[in-house]
Specification:
Length: 668
């Protein structure tokens, strides 16, 4: 208002002065002032109006400034570092903030590097740098693009602390006003240290200590000159220059920082030459990163960590079960098949999960391309399992007193208006349960389900960990209720591990705030402690037969394996889940839009993929048992001296037949 009053006083003074120079004429005579005076009066009126508008605008912007005296507001998001079973860091999620440090806590060259590259006149301007703005405008004009910015460190701090990143005139004016306010309230060093503790430096790292922990696994107190130069160089474009994403660009930018430090007199040329940025070592080597599959696993593990601990209040380190060699092999195997034979047969998606006998997830591939879709087809996708569901039907039958040698009649069957069909559209008559399971005869499975009761079958599935909705209808025996690959793989894993129920897990322990916050405890229920043990001996007999002579023959190995195929109507889903003495591997193939495949069955591509994966894992260097075979624990049955000489020589048995007998002997 003082400005307006002064303008009004000035206007009246000029009018009085003009009146004295040109007094009023006699009454009745026309009066007309000179042109220059009329122009002057008009200009003054316009200036008064503009001043009113400017003052009102500045008043509004000042009134709406989001100012606060709380300069050290804490962030609510925290970081999660994921460590594989061998101790290698394979993923980092969330925000890394580190400690709030003072200038005394950090090497002198770190703030000098930031000032040199971001605001060389920082200690000489008043929060705004007109010289820097003009220089940046000239450079950008000559280069034809944005090569330099005109914002000072104080302006950047104003935006970090109080404003959004939107590019509007209002935000720029408020940024300048807050910068002036900060310069009035704080010293230069106070402004700089707040900026260093808040600036974003890429890869989820905020502040110099958070970035030092994220990139170099050390405190900012211990940064070398080369490391400090690399961090300072990230400020301009943290996402594209992050060394975990583009190490070469980060190195080139660090060299530019060292050059500006020399130009500004902070270091000598000799000192700059000793800072070898090409030898900077990152905590997570970008050249050894696991790709799509590990990110599906990482998402699943982080979600589980949040569920275990609730809202996070500290940076966490999660020790996971991920086996990196098996994970890489899983990704290579799935990619090879999805890009090759699967694509030719209208299969565009697939998933794989690998468990050990304790239920630890060793590897996970949730889809063909994480960048295209983060939907995890191991844990989130519910699909019809087809004949895989017969595991629960036959377990219920064995619990009801039947055996693998029980005979059922494979014949046409009608329940109400529904009539199940066999895959071959033929019927064999009397068959044993072993044959019916191995050859996946649908009519027998439905008869068993109806005989023992569908409620009993559903109860078995629930006991083995299936939590997806199960519809009580005759077709449930053929796997028409949708389930997840993780649920089914864990159910088969219970047979492999001889436990009542297998609970898959990916977290071994969680550390935070310098202490252990969580440690995994076995959740699987041993058979001997179960109130209703499974008839594992009988079920293993059937699972071995399914691979040895049934629909899963494509998965046969020169060592005992067991498993089951699954195929749904119109070939929309194809499954194979099998296990060795050490690991359980589940595979699903299909399409996200539920489109039919080109007659792909579970005993076709999924069983072949399973075979390739196990064959490679068998001799995998760096596997769960080092260079030893994964298929351990299988020993030949001890030779038995015959009580009496045989009446006739037994026909020679195949190697696979003998190996199958060994595994059956383990079940006894």
């Amino acid at each position: 208002m003082q400005i307006l009053n002064r303008l009004q006083d000035w206007r009246r003074s000029i009018q009085n002065f003009a009146g004295r120079l040109w007094p009023s004429r006699e009454p009745g005579k026309p009066h007309r002032h000179p042109l220059w005076l009329r122009l002057l009066r008009g200009t003054l009126n316009v200036m008064v109006v503009l001043a009113v508008v400017v003052v009102a605008l500045l008043g509004y912007l000042a009134y709406t400034l989001p100012l606060s005296d709380d300069f050290e507001r804490k962030q609510l998001q925290f970081s999660t570092t994921l460590v594989a079973a061998d101790g290698e860091i394979f993923a980092m999620r969330g925000q890394f903030h580190g400690e709030i440090l003072s200038l005394k806590d950090i090497p002198r060259y770190l703030p000098e590097a930031v000032v040199s590259i971001e605001d060389r006149r920082f200690y000489h301007h008043f929060g705004l740098d007109p010289i820097g703005m003009v220089r940046a405008a000239v450079v950008n004009l000559l280069s034809g693009g944005v090569r330099q910015g005109g914002s000072t460190i104080t302006q950047q701090l104003a935006k970090l602390m109080f404003l959004s990143s939107e590019r509007t005139f209002k935000r720029k004016i408020q940024e300048a006003m807050i910068a002036l306010w900060l310069e009035h309230r704080l010293t230069k060093d106070q402004i700089l240290v707040r900026y260093l503790n808040k600036v974003y430096l890429g890869a989820g790292a905020y502040g110099i200590d958070g970035a030092a922990q994220r990139y170099f696994n050390k405190s900012a107190r211990n940064l070398t000159l080369a490391e400090a130069a690399m961090l300072a160089g990230l400020i301009r474009s943290p996402s594209s220059l992050a060394p975990t994403r583009n190490i070469e660009a980060a190195r080139q930018r660090a060299k530019l920082v060292l050059k500006t430090m020399v130009e500004n007199g902070y270091i000598t040329q000799a000192t700059a030459e000793t800072a070898d940025v090409d030898k900077v070592v990152l905590a997570v080597n970008p050249d050894t990163q696991i790709t799509e599959g590990s990110r599906y696993f990482a998402d699943w593990v982080v979600a589980n960590a949040h569920a275990l601990l609730g809202p996070l209040s500290a940076d966490l380190t999660v020790q996971t079960t991920l086996n990196i060699p098996l994970q890489r092999l899983a990704e290579r195997t799935m990619r090879h098949w999805l890009d090759g034979e699967c694509a030719k047969r209208n299969v565009h998606q697939g998933a794989m999960v690998v468990l050990n006998r304790e239920g630890a997830v060793l590897a996970m591939v949730g889809g063909r391309d994480y960048d295209e879709s983060q939907f995890n087809r191991v844990t989130q996708a519910r699909r019809q399992p087809g004949s895989l569901f017969k595991l629960f039907v036959y377990l219920a039958a064995f619990d009801a007193g039947m055996t693998p040698d029980t005979v059922m009649v494979d014949q046409p069957l009608k329940i109400g208006n529904w009539q199940p069909q066999n895959y071959s559209d033929t019927y064999r008559g009397p068959v044993t349960l072993r044959t019916a399971f191995a050859d996946s005869i649908n009519s027998v499975a439905v008869q068993l389900s109806e005989k023992v009761g569908r409620a009993r079958v559903i109860g078995v599935a629930r006991s083995l960990g299936v939590e997806s909705p199960l519809v009580d209808q005759p077709s449930i025996a053929l796997g028409t209720s949708e389930v997840t690959l993780m649920e089914m793989t864990a159910a088969y894993g219970a047979m492999a591990a001889d436990v009542k129920k297998m609970v898959p897990f990916g977290i071994q322990s969680i550390r935070g705030q310098s202490r252990r916050l969580y440690e995994h405890k076995a959740a699987s229920i041993p058979q001997e402690k179960s109130a209703l043990p499974w008839r594992r001996k009988e079920m293993l007999d059937l699972l071995i037969a399914a691979v040895d002579s049934g629909t899963g023959k494509a998965a046969r190995m020169p060592a005992p394996v067991a498993g089951k195929t699954g195929t749904t109507q119109d070939y929309r889903d194809a499954w194979f889940i099998g296990f060795t003495a050490d690991i359980v591997v589940g595979i699903w193939l299909g399409n996200d839009d539920n489109a039919p495949t080109d007659r792909v069955t579970g005993g076709d591509l999924p069983a072949r993929i399973w075979h390739d994966y196990i064959a490679a894992a068998y001799h995998l260097e760096g596997g769960p048992k080092g260079n030893q075979e994964l298929l351990t624990g299988i020993q030949p049955a001890p030779a038995q001296a015959p009580a009496t000489p045989p009446a006739a020589a037994e026909p020679p048995r195949s190697v696979l037949g003998r190996l199958g007998s060994w595994l059956r002997s383990l079940a006894n």
